[in-house]
Amino acid sequence: MKGEKGERRRTALLKIAYRMFIEQGYDSTSIDEIIAEADIAKGTYYYYFPSKEATLEAVIDMMLAEEAERAQAAVASPMPVPQKIVAVILAMRPRQEESGISTTLERSENIVMHEKVGRRLIEVTAPLLTEVVQEGIAQGIFECTNVEERVRMILFLCQRIFDSGHFNERDIEVFVDTVEKTLGAQTGTMDFIKGLIQ
Amino acid sequence: MKGEKGERRRTALLKIAYRMFIEQGYDSTSIDEIIAEADIAKGTYYYYFPSKEATLEAVIDMMLAEEAERAQAAVASPMPVPQKIVAVILAMRPRQEESGISTTLERSENIVMHEKVGRRLIEVTAPLLTEVVQEGIAQGIFECTNVEERVRMILFLCQRIFDSGHFNERDIEVFVDTVEKTLGAQTGTMDFIKGLIQ
DNA sequence: TTACTTTTTCGACTGTCGGTCGAATTTCTG
DNA sequence: CAGAAATTCGACCGACAGTCGAAAAAGTAA
Questions:
Q1: Nearest nucleotide, C1' to the C-alpha of A55?
Q2: Do B171 and A156 touch (CB under 8 A)?
Q3: In this structure, what CATH number is given to the domain that contains residue A142?
Q4: Backbone phi, psi, residue A39, to 5°
């Protein structure tokens, strides 16, 4: 009939899982390791999570929540449109902790986690960026139809850029060019993106 | 000092693995199932493949080989440029057998396989399409720099379209529009793509 | 306090799976 | 035919996700 103590334990487990998933990757973190770290029996773990994958899902929610909040705040603020775009794109960037150790390096593993984070990130970010772009259209900076689809495409490309070693200048140049053209912006309008990537 | 009989067994195993990976997905196909199907002892299996993942790699090679050959032939032929592009894009389309049962449906599993196939497919296809686009530039159909990067980006988007349920008309319209603009083609030049997707 | 119900915890156990290994068997070679 | 090399075998291992019944802890009502 309670649940408050239980919630705290769940959160604690979530934080441990979060850290370990980021440090060693999802696949190579075993439940046994998590419960050892938490000093907990296996049954207890499965009292709070139905499966390992459910834990990953919850961890991802946790990761995205803060980031989404920050991006949302930026979008709602009275910033100029280009700066809002920067804010949203920055949210797409892999978190420092991640890139530090595992995710970036051994990305042939961790595909599952990486993919899931990516999908969710786009889901969260797309409506925000759509709003910004529509604001830009109202201001005459952009000119296009099918905003929603264009935005999703841009975010998708953005993810690719951040993902693997696709970091050379040419790729970025093509990306910026594509963004400008697909949104119907004047050439050079989006040049500032180049700066914030490297 | 031989290897001919051995090669045949390897190929047989590869074909079994290929079929089972496609029918049930990579993750949910166990080595035990494969060797049962092949009526082979486990040691024999590992005499031919160092690991399950190596088998997947080999299977993917097998899958891509034929497709790449066909695309290559089309590119080398004296077709008009647009038709060559069709040929390459068709090669990106998920194979019928795949979409039939597992890969498309339960794509939350099979991520590993799906991802690997995707990467390899782009690796194989990119140089071909680059060649075609350069031919198009020579003919004045396209006009752009950084062809290699643009092509990779297009293939990437193409994959996304075929991937998940991103199949509505608007997405395709945006895709076609982006391709035209990124290659510097006249509006409408690439409209034929719309037809060949649905 | 006591008697009870509910929530939480425990850890031994199971089944599956990828991979190993040494020995047996077959095939090649001189 | 003898010895070497290639091939096959299957018992075995360790790791791991997940289960289960029972015990302990916490809550409730008298």
A1: D17
A2: no
A3: 1.10.357.10
A4: 55, 65
